[in-house]
Every structure is written in C-alpha cells, then in structure tokens.
Amino acid sequence: MRYHQLFSPEEPDPFERRLRGTIIFIAGVFLLLFLKLFFLQIIKGEHYRELARRRSLKVFLLSAPRGNIYDRRGILLAGNSPSFALAVDPKIIRGPQGDEILKRLAEILGEEFPSLKQRYLLARRGTGTNQVILAFDLDRDTVAKIEARRYFLPGVDIIVEPTRYYPFGSELFHLVGYVSRINAEELKRLAPQGFTADDFLGRAGLEAQFDERLRGRKGRRLVEIDARGRIRRVVAEEAPVMGESLVLTVDVFWQRLAHRLLEGQAGAIVVMDPRDGRLLSLVSHPGVDPMYFVKGFPPKEWEKIRKDEKHPLLNKAFSAYPPGSTFKVVTAMAALEKRVVTPATTFFCKGYYRLGRRIFRCWRSWGHGEVNLVKALEVSCDVYFYRVGEEVGIDYLSRMARACGLGRPTGLGFPGEKAGLVPDRAWKMRVFHEPWQKGETLNVAIGQGALKVTPLQLAKLLSAVVNGGTLYRPWCVVQLLDPYGEVVDEFRPQEDGKLPVKPRTLYYVKKGLVAAVNGKEGTGRAARMEDITVGGKTGTAQVVGMKKRIHSKKLPYLKRDHAWFMAFAPAEKPEIVIVVFVEHGGHGGSAAAPIAGKFLKAYFKGEHPS
C-alpha cells in the first residue's frame, strides 16, 4: 500500500501559519496598549493627573453679608442673621438618579416631589454656579435629618447663609426698605456682573438707594469631591467681604412713636430739623414686615395686603396728594411779594366768594368777617385766599410754588419719590387741550384742584419758611462705615436754593402760623403746648367734589377728606418741623393736629417710647 504525502516539505503547515499570525496580532495589540499606556502615564501622565484633579475640585460662591443700618444712637435697624440653606449640585442632580435624590429630599422637607422638582428646575435655569439653593432658613431638626442621610444624598450640601434681619418689623418698613431675591428678568441683565439666582437686591428705601454699597463682595470656596459628588475636604477659601454700613440721622425712638401715633390709620409723618434738613423720623403707615420679602409671603397674608384699602406697600411720605389749606402759606408769600396785599389789607368774609356766576364757599359757612393776612392764616379763611389768589394769578402763583420746591422731588434720593404737580396754563393746554380758567386759580390758591404735593415736600418748604428762607435737601445718612467700623464716607447738609421772598414776608407768615396754633380761633389749637410756642397750619383736602358739604365721617372711607397739619417749634428758634398727613382722615384740625401735638410734647419732654 502506497501513502501519498499531503504537503510537500517546501510548503508551510497552514495551522502553524495561522497560529503565527494570531500570535503576531496579539503581540501587536499588546504593544499598542503598552505604547498607549506609556504615552498616557509617562509622557502625558502629569497632564492627565492635573485634569483628574481639576475634575474633583469645585468652586462655590459664598454670599457676602449686607452692611448693617444703624440709627443715630447706634441701634441696629437692619442686620444679618445666619441661617441654614439646602444647596444641590446640578451636575449630580440630573436624570433618574437626580429624581431619586430629590424624592428623598422632598420626604425630609415634607414637600410633594413634583413641587420640589419644579422649584429645582426653575432655580437651576437661573444659576451659573455649581450650586442651586433649594430651601432657606432650615430648622435644626431638618438639618440633622439631612446630615444623617448624607451618604444617600450625593450632590447635596447644607450651607450657612447670611439672611437679612429687620428687628423693628413694619415700624421702619418704608424708611429702611427691604430686600428680595433677584428675578429672572434682572438676572439676564445682571449675570455678567456676577449675580446669580440666589442673590438679593434692595427694593425700597435705604436698601434700594444704597444697594451697591450695602451689598459687599462674594467669597469663594474650593472643595474636593468624590465620585458620588460628596464633599471630601475644603482645599482653599476666600472669605466674603461684608458691605458698608449706614449710620442714619433718624432716631428709632421717634420713629416708633410716630408709627404708634398713626395706629389704625393710613398716613405719613415726616419730622425734620429745619436748621439743616436732616430727618429725625419718616413714617408711612401702615407698613409690612420686611421679613416676608426675605422668607416669602404666606398666600393668605399676601392676599390680605393686596386687598387692603390703606395700601401698606405705598410710601405715603413720598406720594402726592392735594395739600389743602397748608398751601395757603405759598399763596400768602406770593401775595405779599407781588404786593397785591399788605399785612394790614383786609377782606370781608361772608362765607362765600362769587366769581362770575360761580359761588366759591368758605369752610365756615357763616363767614369770618374782616380778616387780614395773619388772621386769614389763623382761621384758614378760604375767602381771603380766593381774593388774593385771583389777584396774584396762576402764573405768579405757580412760579412761587416751584421756587418753594414743589413740583419736583426733594433730593432725598429714595426710589419712588413723586414729584407732585404744580398746574399752570401750559400744563392744562398740554394735558387737556383747554385754556386755563380763573376759577381754577381760586382752587389752587387754597390747595385744591390739580395741585399735588408730598408730605416730604411740605416738610422741606416749612423748614425754609422758619429757618430764614434756605431750602435744604432732606437727608438721613450721616456716615458709611467699612466692615471694621471705620468711616469711609460722610454726608453734610446741602442747600437746594432760597425762597424768593423778603425776611419781612417770612415774618408775617410765621406770625400767622403761630396764631393758627395759639390764637383764640386758631384751627391748629390741638397742637398747642403750655411752655413751648408752636406754629403750624392745618389742611383739609377734598377727595371728591360735592355740591353740598357732608361730614367726612358720613362718607365711605375712600371718599373722605385728607387731613394735614404741619408745625414747627419752638417758634422763636425752631429746631423741629413735623408734617402729619392722615389719608381719608377728615379735618386737619381734628385728625392731624392732635397727632402732631402728642409728638411735640413727647419730643420736648424727652419721653422716649419703649
């Protein structure tokens, strides 16, 4: 039997050939892996180690405490208190894993998961940092629960945030103002300046006016985190810098007294030093506890404020209203300066004044008889001022009003301060496309018609009348302090013009104002003091026109007259001016003058409220 050879000796075995190819391929792969590892670990090792280190490090911004606000005695009016906030990392809290973490948090916080997630999504949209703040002002029990479950809550952290604190609540709401969280529209505009969704902005009062200087500078914290997003250690930290603090001219004791005197009513009280324009008190009533804007409004509370007909959010000290008879001071100065009357000139008041076919009535229906300028101011005779107003004319009268600081902001600088309105021919043609009528001049002469002023403007005007004619800008901040208490800026009185009147004019106007409080028929007798001579002027401003007089208390609240009273003391050398405005309060003599009287008595007796 003959065997045949399958392969010739010259030909290689196919199995051996395949095996050799496989070995070479595997060796090549390992060589490539070795070369790649050599490249990554040896040649590029330091580079990738740095990248890995960076990926485990995160920067968190630290909120800066706002500067404090103190009254003139150093009593804290606005400060900061530490509070616990719940922060989450948006790079960890995402997808199904993120939902699981949010569900655990919702259970701890006692919230519905959909509500918490919605809040998270909204907050994440507005942040450009490694943190999203989900909850503020956590109590210690909640903090303890989160800390105890920290292992199961990757990307979750408890941070200590400075929270704005207002120890006097609504009593200083309109003066100090409040802060609230930045909204989405503002964030778009302010994000390039370093703002985030967690920041607060000053919204009113001093908080808004000095927001930039109160705000401070944020700090930074560099932390190392593990693969599950938990913080392992703090690598470095740059502490935040507290904002500058304000020291005011305002005395919190007088502020609280003024607030108390307006209890149950809507209105404003402005107390000013006529010698330099500094404010001792500025109150608008009612107010709102500013902590609601920091921590959030309960729905019922917000609805109550929104529907309140006394408008607690409106700063009435800066709002414009018809001044009523307080404006007769301006009419009197205009009449004397234009020489349409002398102090001795008299007019007979029989209870009304006829202009053409129209009858303009005096507040006293049976009249005041013969009155001169001083007597007209004492008894607030409308007929006298109808007569002199007609002779002065609206052109001169409006010029005098503007020269007295009316029709423009006072210069205090608070946001929201109204300019008021001094009407004239040009204004009426521009607004109504109609010529001015003589009857309108008579209305303006007694502080009615389209004329509008603010309580702060009247305080500025009366201060100028009693200090010799200098208009001072109202001011309420004396110093700005750095975080160490060092003075970085100081403020001084600023003149804002002079009254265009002679000293003789001021003498007779002041004489009439003193008679209004101390005379037998003075309309401001409720503010009289035994040992201090007070001067002042009442005002009753009609809100709606009526064909016949109806007692204010018989009208619906929103149709009642506004009550005014402005006063100064001591008359010989005035050191205090007070303007009281009671919205829909009725008559100035019965509603506003008693309030001013109580304040002045407490002030001069040194009776600080507790």
Give a written overview of the molecule.
This protein has 610 residues and is α+β, with helices and mostly antiparallel strands. It is 37% helix and 21% strand. The strands form seven sheets. Strands 2, 3, 4, 5, 10, 18 and 19 form a seven-stranded mixed β-sheet that branches. A five-stranded antiparallel β-sheet has the order 12-11-23-22-21, sandwiched between helices. Strands 1-8-9 form a three-stranded antiparallel β-sheet. The N and C termini lie far apart (133 Å). The mean pLDDT is 89.
Number of helices: 21
Beta strand count: 23
Q: Termini distance?
A: 133 Å
**How many structurally independent domains?**
2
Question: What descriptors fit this protein?
Answer:
610 residues; Penicillin-binding protein 2a (Domain 2); Beta-lactamase; 2 domains; 5-stranded antiparallel sheet; 23 strands; 37% helix
Quick recap:
By secondary structure, the protein is of the alpha+beta class. It is built from 21 helices and 23 strands.
Topology, please?
Layout: H1 14-43, H2 45-55, E1 57-62, E2 69-70, E3 76-88, H3 95-109, H4 113-125, E4 132-138, H5 140-148, E5 156-165, H6 173-176, E6 179-181, H7 184-190, E7 200-202, H8 205-209, H9 211-215, E8 219-225, E9 231-238, E10 245-248, H10 252-261, E11 267-272, E12 279-285, H11 291-295, H12 299-307, H13 328-338, E13 347-349, E14 352-355, E15 358-361, E16 369-371, H14 373-379, H15 382-392, H16 394-403, H17 425-432, H18 438-445, H19 455-467, E17 470-472, E18 477-481, E19 487-490, E20 495-498, H20 503-518, E21 535-541, E22 562-569, E23 576-582, H21 588-605
Parallel strand pairs: 2-10
Antiparallel strand pairs: 1-8, 2-3, 3-4, 3-5, 6-7, 8-9, 10-18, 11-12, 11-23, 13-16, 14-15, 17-20, 18-19, 21-22, 22-23
Helix pairs in contact: 10-21, 13-15, 13-16, 14-20, 15-18
